[in-house]
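Sample intake sheet
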Amino acid sequence: MDYLETNRANWNSRVPIHAGSDFYDVDGFVAGRSPLRSFEREEVGDVSGRRLAHLQCHIGLDTLAWARLGAEVTGLDFSDAAVAQAETIAAACRLPARFVTADVYDAAEALGRAAYDIVYTGVGALVWLPDLTRWARTVAALLKPGGFLYLAEFHPFPDILDEATGTTVTHDYFDREPQVWVEPHTYTGGEVLEHQTSVQFQHGLGEVVSAVCAAGLRVEFLHEHDFTLFQRFATLEAADGRYRVPGGAPKLPLMYSLRASAGSGPPPAPTPGHRPER
């Protein structure tokens, strides 16, 4: 199966459903709502006047939220439908932004090498990539000396637990086989998808950190969070837009955030014999 074309068709099908959903609330965004989480804004810091590239930007809400905070933004996504929607939203908000259609592995050529102060990747992105080593080297190639990667993601640990309660180990944490899913609806609900098949790839936390370090980036912090952004398990309790294990019960790592900075030299050469997957 061609994972890239399969996923592109799937995400092109999602775009009109997502754009019209309460989940994304595009009208609310145009009116001034920000989708960025408070911990992201705190950990990234002041972006005024800084060049920011958002990889796998989907319909561009997070990208444009950084623009509202003063960043000079460029969003990249492999879905032409998503990029077109992002451009429409940017025009409605009268926000300056550039959006580019390209595979994330081609980002350095599509966006410009050593051109950005910040490379940002939002939640739910890495599961669509088969090769994190190649991804991290792409990020390193985009960054100016002294720039940094900021990644906020769902923690891989909960993926080994049962879907109902999140209390029993039912899946192998180290399973790296591609996962093929056929689902009639996207996570926002709504209409039946025209293209229902997707291919996903699981990555452990150590795999993420190792890829970032191997690309020559210096990890400044790795923060694990005891909350997530949706009802991951039925047992989680919601408060202030976050979902946590109920008080008194042992906590789970549900999200993480990582920041890693670029040095003054070019990223290291690929490991001999390493042949990244496409």
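Comment: Confidence is low (pLDDT under 50) at residues 267-278. The CA atoms of residues 165 and 233 lie 6 Å apart.
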